[in-house]
Structures are given as structure tokens and as C-alpha cells.
Amino acid sequence: MTEPTSDQTEQLAIAFERFTRRFKVAEASAAMQNALNALDIQALLFISEHPECSLGEVARHLQVALTTMSSSADRLVRRKMIERERPKANRRSVSLTLTPNGVAAVAGYMDGYRASCRAMLEALDSDDRIAFLNLTGKIAKYEY
């Protein structure tokens, strides 16, 4: 495999900056609908994918301090988007699950995210879409 050139790296950096901006706009829209910040949204997404996870697991995944994650969880509980539950197997621990409000917030966020993806794919013809999806899949699987 050959090394990418500086020009190629710059082209990719510009493209990803534009992609990132589009996704941030979609995230901001979902956040405004639910009065959430980016950390709260990311916490909801993780909890959605890992029902009954612990606060520590969410904090580690998002790479934030446990106290920061605890504040986020408090906000999400107050907004009735997550629930804290004590598992019967270990009454000292606390697991987090989404409420119906949390499920709706995640669905709204994902709808906006998918709309951004769709808009990007619409810029390509059918063959280019297939090639783009194959290449991005390859990049996503690559271990740095």
C-alpha cells in the first residue's frame, strides 16, 4: 500500500470537515428539540445500545469523568429520558435504561443523522454510492 500524498490528505480533511459540520447541524437540531447537550445525546445513544449499563460504562465509553457523567444522568432522569434501577443480582450497583421519552429522543436524533447521510448519498450516482459505501466501510474496519 502506498502512502497518501499531502494533497490527498488535505482533500480528505476538507471533506470530513464538511461532513462533520452537517452532522453537527443535525445533532444540534435534535438537541434543541429535546433541550439536550451533546454529552446527553451521546449518553442516550450508548444507553440505547447497551440497556442496563452502568454509569461507569457510559463514562468510560464517552471518556468523561464519572462526576460529569453523573451530572448528565441526573439531567436525563429529571427530563424523564432514563431511569436508574438497582439490579436484583447486585443491589449496590445501578443500571441505566431508556424511558419512552429517551427512546423517542434517540429515534429523533437517528432520523436526523440518517437524513444527513441520505443527503450526502444523493449527491452520488448509483455506482458511486456503492463504491463510496464500500470504501467507507473499509476505512471504518481499518485498525490504526
Characterise the protein shown here:
A 3-stranded antiparallel β-sheet has the order 1-3-2. 70% of the residues lie in helices and 7% in strands. The chain is elongated. The chain is mainly alpha-helical and 144 residues long. The protein has 6 helices and 3 strands; from the N terminus they run ααβααββαα. α2 packs across α5.
Fill in the keyword field for this structure.
144 residues, 7% strand, elongated, mainly alpha
What spatial order of strands do you see in the largest sheet? 1-3-2
- Major sheet summary line: 3 strands, antiparallel
Structural classification: mainly alpha
Radius of gyration: 19 Å
Number of helices: 6
Outline: elongated
What's the β-strand tally? 3
> What is the string of helix and strand elements?
HHEHHEEHH
Poorly predicted regions: none
The whole-number mean of residue pLDDT values reads 89
Classify the beta-strand content into a percent band.
Answer: 5-15%
Helix proportion: over 70%
Distance between the termini: 14 Å
